[in-house]
Design brief:
Layout (H helix, E strand, L loop, with lengths): L10 H16 L8 H8 L3 H21 L3 H4 L5
Helix pairs in contact: 2-3
């Protein structure tokens, strides 16, 4: 078995981060099959209800653009 250094990340943590990342990205698309039902329930047009999906994806893109680069600015070591 290969020894790991104290600075490496365990396989469990890597798998956990991969699963969580996948769920976060998939969350952007969970509402799409429900848009017709949402428009009926709220009595709005389907194009108005589809803005939910568009705004969610724009918010995610802005987060990637503005928040993720902050991880490069700050070191995890104090």
């Amino acid at each position: 078995m290969q020894e790991t250094s104290s600075n490496s990340i365990s396989r469990t943590v890597i798998w956990l981060m991969a699963i969580i990342s996948g769920l976060v990205v998939a969350n952007n698309y969970y509402n799409q099959p429900l848009l017709a039902l949402i428009s009926e329930e709220l009595q709005v047009s389907e194009s108005a209800a589809s803005r939910i999906s568009v705004l969610t994806q724009i918010g995610y893109a802005l987060g990637l653009l503005l928040i993720v680069p902050l991880g490069d600015k700050f070191s995890g070591k104090n």
